[in-house]
Amino acid sequence: TGHVIPTKDINAKTIFVYVLGGITYAEVAALRLLGKLHGCKIFIGTTSFISGGSLLKMLSPPEES
């Protein structure tokens, strides 16, 4: 899954960002802001999106069965 940030400049630089292991929605927002501020097209790819709940689940010890 990726996001495209459109820019008005046809000669704008294009940056590809791929994150292995997942990216948070806040990190995607930060990349979008950087692209907007610098006039770049940013394509974001990742293996998964990480929410607050999934982050806590990854950090907690495994449940015993």
Automatic annotation (TrEMBL):
Gene3D superfamilies in alphabetical order: 3.40.50.1910
InterPro entries (alphabetical): Sec1-like, Sec1-like_dom2, Sec1-like_sf
Homology family: Belongs to the STXBP/unc-18/SEC1 family.
Domain of life: Eukaryota
Transmembrane parts of this sequence: 15-35
SUPFAM superfamilies xrefs: Sec1/munc18-like (SM) proteins (SSF56815)
GO BP annotations listed: vesicle-mediated transport
KW Nucleotidyltransferase (keyword) present: no
Keywords of this entry: Membrane, Transmembrane, Transmembrane helix
Naturally occurring in which organism (per UniProt): Trichonephila clavata (Joro spider)
Protein's name in the database: Vacuolar protein sorting-associated protein 33B
Protein's gene: VPS33B
